[in-house]
Amino acid sequence: MIATAWRVLGVGFSLLVVLTAGLLAGAEPGRSSFLNSSIDGLTLGFAVRTDDLTVLLLAVVGVVATCVQVYSLGYLHERPASYHALVALFTAAMVTVVVADSLFLLLIGWEVMGACSYLLIGHYWERRDARSGAVKAFLMTRLGDVGFLFGIFVLGVGAGTFRISELDPAELSSGVLTTGTLLLLVGVVGKSAQVPLQTWLPDAMPGPSPVSALIHAATMVAAGVFLIARLYDLFAASATTLTVLAIVASVTMLFAALCAMAAVEVKRVLAWSTVSQLAIMFAGLSLGTSDGRHAALFHLVTHAAFKGLLFLCAGVLLHQIGSAAFVVLRRYTRRGRLRKALPVTFATMTVGLAALAGVPGFAGFFSKDTVVEAAWHHAQDGSGLGWVVLVSVCLTAALTAFYCLRLWLWVFFRTPALAGGIGAFEDDDPMADLDEPDTSKLRDAPWVMLSPLVLLAIASVVLGYADGVHLNWVVGLVTTVLVLLGALPAYSLWSRGADPRPVVLEREFGVDPLYHRLFAVPARWLARLTVAGDRDVIGAYVRATGRTGTLVSQGFRRMQTGNVQTYLTAAVVGVVAIAVLAGVIGS
């Protein structure tokens, strides 16, 4: 099974090399269809396409998936055959979404990804949190996919074709265009964990860390950004849809960044960070301009590198120590031993956090600046939407720098022995009497796990220069100041041993309990009412019918006495009764 998974990756890389070589050689983008049929003028079937966007996403998916598979050889030892098979299927589903030129084929890949994510998140099925996280992810993404399915039919029937390359916004009425794109946006919101369907992604963290890297960096959550980029002409033609997208993205990026500021587990911080960074990409797409689309895709590529790197680094912490929670790590971090015991992990995670925070010179700095610059140009044209996006992205940049530095300091550096925060140690600390952990036995992960980290760390730097350095120095200066404004409070609080976790942030604004009261509790009562109705109403009729039949049969059984005189008497009485009844009716 593992060998089959590696063959799938090998075929995928071969396809990527061939397509890249063809496009670099000047080949025209190609399209191919199969299993086509026409019903009353409506074209049905499957189709694939190869263009620059296809090759770009294939490169991202191929590199990250390969790094995850290599890393998993040293990380995961429980049920490896099913794990590697599901990762290969997950990757193939994302590739299907990328190459699809048919809405139906795209839907197949879209749904297979959802099924694979459920199985991979619940890989440690013996853990209750893994099971509940998998179910939550499945239900919330399926909820969004209902709208996605209806959106496909609205656009396909309205255009008379389900071929993506043949969907022309000029041939669709404004009502069909707006309705179809809004319904597709519902599916995108669910898949990419945007408000209000954002809570499943942080709760999916009990899954294996390589799975988290794959989901967050290159496959499932990135599929929503890819879909809008693929159908950008349709989305850009609907001002209503772009406005909704901009509002959702702006709210999500700030909401998720604030939640990341208070999270106390490394993977949960990174999960909320993914939600926030995806919202930045959607904000760029919501501008409706080619610059916004380019900026969103640029940030998608760089984000895949540094977020995949960060999740794999978190996996090393889990693998070597046993937990990625600050509360448990503090026995190691209070002396600042981890950066000495895990030097490669420390160096690569530093690069990843710097790229995520937008530190100048790293890939995240350049890609995030392109989104800010695109929003600035749009705002200068008098667009209120541009100003909303610009302000939101700038505030998010500062918040991102805050939680990145907070995470880096609390995990890798000696925590000050002051009261008031996680990692703060006093004489009455219950852990203070424990023996200092023996870091002489703590070693960095094997190189089968470290080599993907090094590769992704290099990518987290050089990808910023892959697009050419078209830096707007004013924008770069502003974003650098924002990074400093976010980092300085984090350093100040850490140096004083404090950790700001207001109740509203620690509880993540109480969204999960609210959803529980609004949806789970009524659904549970409705289920109980349904069961009661089935048992006490419908079931009562069924039971009464059966009971009546039983009583009637018992009555007939008692009439069978075996006495001939009784039978003759009953027959005579019956004949007389019939005669009397006939006389009465005749008169």
From TrEMBL:
It is a multi-pass membrane protein. Its main location: membrane. Residues 100-380 form the NADH:quinone oxidoreductase/Mrp antiporter transmembrane domain. Keywords: Membrane, Oxidoreductase, Transmembrane, Transmembrane helix. The chain crosses the membrane at residues 53-76, 83-100, 106-125, 146-164, 170-190, 211-229, 235-257, 269-288, 308-329, 341-365, 385-405, 447-466, 472-494, 567-586. It comes from the Bacteria. This is NADH-quinone oxidoreductase subunit L. PANTHER family: NADH-UBIQUINONE OXIDOREDUCTASE CHAIN 5. It is found in: Endomembrane system; Membrane. GO terms for molecular function: NADH dehydrogenase (ubiquinone) activity; NADH dehydrogenase activity. GO terms for cellular component: endomembrane system; membrane. Residues 39-80 form the NADH-Ubiquinone oxidoreductase (complex I) chain 5 N-terminal domain. Its EC number is 1.6.5.-. It holds the Pfam family Proton_antipo_N. GO terms for biological process: ATP synthesis coupled electron transport; electron transport coupled proton transport.
